[in-house]
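Crash report, auto-generated. Payload:
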Amino acid sequence: MQRIDSREMLNELRHQSKQVVENSRCRILICAGTGCLAGGSGEIYDKMCELIAACPDVEVHFGPEIAHGDGPMEVKKSGCHGFCEMGPLMRIEPMGILYTKVSVDDCEEIFESTIKKGELISRLLYKQNGVEYQKQEEIPFYKKQTRLVLENCGHIDAEHIDDALAHDGYQALAKALHEMTPEEVVEQIYESNLRGRGGGGFQTGYKWKQVARQPEKIRYVVCNGDEGDPGAFMDRSIMEGDPHKMIEGMAIAAYAVGAQEGYIYVRAEYPLAINRLKKAIADAMECGLLGDNIMGTDFSFKLHINRGAGAFVCGEGSALTASIEGNRGMPRVKPPRTVEQGLFDKPTVLNNVETYANVPMIVLKGAEWFKGIGPENSPGTKAFALTGSVKNTGLIEVPMGTTLREVIFDIGGGIKNDGEFKAVQIGGPSGGCLMTPHLDINLDFDSLKKMGAMIGSGGLVVMDTNTCMVEVARFFMNFTQNESCGKCVPCREGTKRMLEILERIVAGKGELADLDLLEELAETITETALCGLGKSAALPVMSTLKLFRDEYIEHVVDKKCKSHTCTAMRNYIINPDLCKGCSKCARNCPVSAITGQIKEPFTIDQAKCIKCGACQGNCAFGAIYVE
Amino acid sequence: MKYITINNRKVPFEDEKNLLSVIRKAGIDLPTFCYHSELSTYGACRMCVVEDDRGRVFASCSETPRDGMVIYTNTPKLQHHRKLILELLLASHCRDCTTCRENGVCTLQKLARQLGVDDVRFQNTKEQLPKDTSSNCIVIDPNKCILCGDCVRTCEEIQGVGVLNFAHRGSNMRVTPAFGKPMSETDCVGCGQCRVVCPTGAITIKSNVHAVWDLVYDKTKRVVVQIAPAVRVAIGDKFGIP
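Recovered output after restart:
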């Protein structure tokens, strides 16, 4: 690849790359995000490459109205398309067809029917409420979204810089370097009111301003890619699907604050993201879009990748910088703040992946454009990882201020198995729960804060009526306790005790006084913990205790779990009217708790029963139920 | 002159590096485990929390004093937080006080009594670890450690030896030499400064009194007395001299 030493050359390369894309007869984009790869998309990619290599000159038929060039056919590995529920996904351009749940066995048929003859394969198309959707853009899941940060995810080859260049990659950096002073860039980001997407919602431009005004001249730009919330994968998808967007954002930040070096802190559990980032950085270095004298200017910027060992606490700013320095990842007291003395005690801009990915768009299109999306105090869009009991799980992006109802029912397609909505956990282990009455609140920083929840990094775990909220609280507390760094007493010891109490409650050994003790501990932890993660550690318990107190009381007083989630409180009962006395349950019981006479109804000794459920699974007559 | 209103009293201050120093200069005894003026600020014990006039609670050891601040050091809320933090510390702490070398001089014990923690509602479910008696002079009992990190910082920042550090995380965190090695296999010089700062009986000076008595009464031995540094440390310790 040639070295880009001027803006004109970048434009020339963009033009060339665009030509390649436009001239291609057919582009087959196979989702190579982590989810689809696990579903076998790697083999699908190999198979399609093999098929096309075997007959490269095949004529493509898409009907006369679809424009396509006469260049070569291409098979590309794209980043996450977002529709993980339906993976592995295959997008066929220029038609824009999206095939869902594709397997290796379908490849030949796709090649023979769709590519050669232009016939669609009905079984691979997405269907909802009896309607068949041919094009990706028409599917309700995509139609209701506003994909700006994720615009290119799934549409470009994440492993080749040409594709990024064809989609206006590095244009914003060129504009910043050639048309704007660093002060103007900072001012523009400040004006746009872009707020940090990592959880805190701190104003990005203000952070940059503070770093830019430090007397110390050596400064760093750091990207937080240590996405640790259970069920969150927004940042991972951006790093895997469109790494250049984020790198460009970091380079713009470096130019704005006068930094020459940057670090990307990615968790080692994201090997694909690390590999793609490495490739992207190497490519950008080779093209002269990173390194010395970028695009012929005197701006130089080097980027390093730092792999985190997977500690949740390393998502906290000062723990993250400590970890990059090679120290134990523990938050430190502030002041001094990261903007004054961050990485290696130098002024540091620390933003997360999604925040940096927003930067190029703002520089290209302006602060006013950005402020036009979403509410005034939280402009822009937000990516959410939609998981749990929702029909369409996956990665979505909507303008800030979209209601939960739109996200869960319009985009998410409603509750799985047509169940009933119970609650949604937002913001991961630092967030809270929201219920049906909250469905119409707007998803933005301030509205959620008022409700005792937070946007966090954007994990949305949807729960139906089969979910036990005490168990949910226990799950998150277990996570926080395991991930506490151990430094301050309230978080280290307090979360341990809260977890013990919750474990007692789900084991049916709780008492009413335990609820008061939980509240007492939660209050002290929230008010006295050292870092932000500690301060919010008790939020899942506080919010479930507030919204679902009756469920807690049911657990401690009646020793009942309505949703039958808590194993210890399940009672397996044999319905004598349905039992045929076959003895199969008794033979399968590992503790010999079931007795009876053949051809007479059997009974379960509750004192012996270990609630394993083997009897229920083995009963051919459905005679065993849980009380 | 700059002033901070502490408990409705106007207290002047100059260039104190943190709010805690101003409070202590005013004669108010705010308890701490992890704060030592000559060490870096660690901010882990959270005992020095104060409340401002807007009800915000924060640790005074890591707050820069600002002119016109209004703070309170002993509101019911703060008393409650401190008491609960102490209770949490005691719950995971070996409570065999009667046989502990530090009985009577232990800061944890003293504060628990002072703040009225007379009931611990939690069981000690922490894994009980063996004492490290391998060193000739220092004995480490991890079951009495409250992880304030004073020894870690003293060894690193004052003595420049850096033998001790933290390992593991969350409630499994402990203070140990690198790779879990016994103290005898480290570069410990036996200065005993870790003992001086330890607020509990987790680090003690090895006692050889009984072995010495045996030798004194051994007719075949001639006993020569030499005063080791640890002895000076132990005496200094009693008088609060580092």
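Post-recovery validation: The longest helix of chain A spans residues 489-506.
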